[in-house]
Amino acid sequence: MTEGYQFPSMPPPPPVVVETGPPPPSALRPVVVLLIVNLALSALLTVTVLLARDSVVAYQLDHQHILDPAQRETLRRTYLGSMWARLGGNVVASVIYVFLVRALLRGRRWAYRRVVLLGSLGIVALLVLQFTPYPWWMHVEQLAQVAVLAGLLYFVLRPEVRGHFAKHLPGRTRRTRT
Length: 178
Known about the structure:
mainly alpha, elongated
């Protein structure tokens, strides 16, 4: 009975529309590179400090001029704890940087604003660290990071990059769920 019957064909699925803005400007490339260089410098310093932790802690303790053995031991444990916290912070920052770079390349305005904030606050924090008793090589590395962050701010604040993240362009803001 159903030998000659043909089932109707399914209509094609509707096309998927993805809201994207214009492609990222070539001036965004140095921003991404400098973000990665900054992260690499920070990770390199963290690994170096962890490997040389005893000498770094001894240097810091010697520059505190604390003679009481109990206070020195407490301070030594605090310095060691801060080194491990820095390592944890770098792991978290690495994950965040992946999402930040991806959002930058997609033209997300929130990512652009975070990069400007990261560069500005990073420079201030690293300059304040110059007054902390660290070995000279740590100060040199931190100043190198200041230079990288200054370059990052220079490139991210260029007119063509700023224009790419303008407020009213499509795809530049967070999507809201309705």
